[in-house]
Amino acid sequence: MADPSEIPQADIATDQTTAPTSTAATDNDSPANGKAGSFGAVFLTTFTTVFLAELGDKTQLAALLLSAESGRPVLVFVGASLALISSSLVGVLLGRWLSRVLPPQQLERLAGILMIGLGLWLGRQAAMSMFPLT
Predict the structure, then answer these.
(1) Could you write out the DSSP letters of every residue in 64-128?
(2) Its pTM surpasses 0.90
(3) Which residue ranges of the chain lie beneath pLDDT 50?
């Protein structure tokens, strides 16, 4: 079996494959080489963030209602899982493309502006439903 330090590593930021310069243990996840973190750290952060964001979300409530109405929870689970995977794929591909065309600071600023805009829009919708103008 090959030594893990000898396996070429894919650089996600530039989509290039790089071979290690030595077989000595190196810090492949240091900020100096442009990687955000180890596989485990990225996976755990992504899982936790998405899992917590989806709890109590409209998607989860829709799955709850569909499961209750259909009486086929396994089919609802499979359908909801495939839908979440598909929408996540769109987000990942869009994020990868945006990271290539925008500097990180602009991408963070754009994401912040979008989140603030979405929050204001949702707040307006909530206020309008609580206090109708008629």
Answers:
(1) HHHHHHHS-HHHHHHHHHHHHHHHHHHHHHHHHHHHHHS-HHHHHHHHHHHHHHHHHHHHHHHHH
(2) no
(3) 1-2, 4-33
